[in-house]
């Protein structure tokens, strides 16, 4: 039962004391969020991991988040992921080997323009390392516009990976929409027809399969049926972000609801678990899911079952660290450069 599980988690945590810190992403299930030391967006959690002195960091989130925590924590800290199955499909849409091959083709097509690669945090360590090597950096949804500005101080164009929607929304925010092109890694004919030489922002053709499902008519429906204001995540399509009243990272969405006046209605366009948390955390605000009944949940995030957290804590308390996420040393060193550039923004 949930009660038994809570007792077992508390007992293991009491034994481990300050040796362990539990971080949970905003999309995690209620049971996990309730027993975490910190809950937040990707950027906040990476900062928490960097600031923590705990020997073990348990990350209730997806693989790239645990990897990022390993990259920026000290070498004597160990990061554990309750389930190794929790992989963000978008992160898998830009594999370092494939990007490496595309880079040669792309930089040749760009002629004498310097391209700076910017990768979204939702990517694997080897791609972060590649970006560092090519003079680029990492960003999250809360600082993508600053990462673009950083890149434009150093080069003529940005290659943004893997999320084309966040890239397009960021370009739009910076007034660069005329110079945006899409780079299709799977279609050579499309690529030949793409005019990279004049582009400011080159978008890799990746996307989040949860956020891509939101549509403008969901926004119109929320206004019509609930008289709601609308806040969405910038992984949504550009027309959805434009139709909404606001957009921001998961924590910026939380802040929007926290600042709402009692009695206001907000439709929230993001992963359903966060919408459910917001309904519990702010009963004075009327929070509705943007898509109504179509349940927008993230398969990858859902892999972290509360029982796995209990298991990993109990094993750790028994001296058996399980599911250690460890980035290879050379990759870690380079990826750390790309992440530190972000943390310094
Ligand atoms: P945040 O950085 O806004 O928490 O987003 C992470 C994510 O995976 C959104 O789908
Ligand atoms: Fe990846 Fe989308 Fe899930 Fe976020 S919501 S972890 S981007 S699949």
From TrEMBL:
GO terms for molecular function: 4 iron, 4 sulfur cluster binding; metal ion binding; quinolinate synthetase A activity. It comes from the Archaea. [4Fe-4S] cluster binds at residues 88, 208, 298. Its cofactor is [4Fe-4S] cluster. GO terms for biological process: 'de novo' NAD+ biosynthetic process from L-aspartate. One of its GO terms (cellular component) is cytoplasm. This is Quinolinate synthase. InterPro entries: NadA (IPR003473), NadA_sf (IPR036094), Quinolinate_synth_A_type3 (IPR023515). SUPFAM superfamilies: NadA-like. Gene3D superfamilies: NadA-like. Keywords: 4Fe-4S, Cytoplasm, Iron, Iron-sulfur, Metal-binding, Pyridine nucleotide biosynthesis, Transferase. Its EC number is 2.5.1.72. The gene is nadA. Belongs to the quinolinate synthase family. Type 3 subfamily. The keyword Cytoplasm applies. It is an enzyme of class 2 (transferase). Catalyzes the condensation of iminoaspartate with dihydroxyacetone phosphate to form quinolinate. Binds 1 [4Fe-4S] cluster per subunit. The keyword Transferase applies. Pathway: Cofactor biosynthesis; NAD(+) biosynthesis; quinolinate from iminoaspartate: step 1/1. It catalyses: iminosuccinate + dihydroxyacetone phosphate = quinolinate + phosphate + 2 H2O + H(+). Its main location: cytoplasm. Iminosuccinate binds at residues 25, 42, 120-122, 141, 233-235, 250. It is found in: Cytoplasm.
């Amino acid at each position: 039962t949930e009660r038994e599980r809570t007792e077992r988690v508390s007992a293991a945590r009491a034994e481990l004391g300050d040796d362990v810190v539990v971080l949970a992403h905003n999309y995690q299930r209620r049971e996990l969020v309730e027993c975490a030391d910190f809950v937040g967006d990707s950027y906040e959690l990476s900062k928490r991991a960097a600031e923590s002195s705990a020997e073990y960091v348990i990350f209730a989130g997806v693989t790239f988040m645990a990897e990022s925590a390993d990259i920026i924590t000290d070498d004597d800290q160990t990061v554990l992921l309750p389930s190794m199955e929790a992989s963000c499909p978008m992160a898998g849409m830009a594999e370092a080997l494939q990007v490496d091959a595309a880079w040669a083709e792309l930089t040749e097509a760009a002629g004498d323009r310097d391209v700076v690669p910017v990768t979204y945090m939702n990517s694997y360590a080897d791609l972060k390392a590649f970006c560092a090597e090519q003079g680029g950096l990492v960003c999250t949804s809360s600082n993508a516009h600053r990462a673009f500005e950083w890149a434009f101080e150093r080069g003529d164009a940005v290659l943004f990976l893997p999320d084309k929607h966040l890239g397009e929304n960021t370009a739009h925010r910076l007034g660069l929409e005329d110079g945006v092109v899409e780079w299709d890694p799977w279609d050579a004919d499309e690529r030949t027809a793409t005019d990279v030489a004049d582009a400011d922002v080159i978008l890799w053709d990746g996307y989040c399969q949860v956020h891509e499902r939101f549509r403008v008519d969901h926004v119109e429906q929320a206004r019509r049926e609930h008289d709601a204001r609308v806040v969405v995540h910038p992984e949504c399509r550009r027309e959805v972000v434009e139709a909404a009243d606001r957009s921001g990272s998961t924590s910026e969405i939380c802040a929007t609801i926290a600042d709402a006046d009692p009695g206001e209605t907000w439709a929230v366009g993001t992963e359903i678990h966060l919408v459910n948390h917001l309904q519990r955390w702010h009963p004075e605000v009327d929070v509705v899911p943007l898509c109504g009944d179509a349940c927008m949940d993230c398969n990858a995030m859902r892999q972290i079952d509360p029982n796995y957290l209990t298991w990993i804590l109990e094993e750790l308390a028994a001296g058996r660290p399980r599911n250690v996420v460890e980035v290879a040393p050379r990759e870690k060193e380079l990826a750390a450069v790309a992440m530190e550039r972000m943390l310094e923004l």
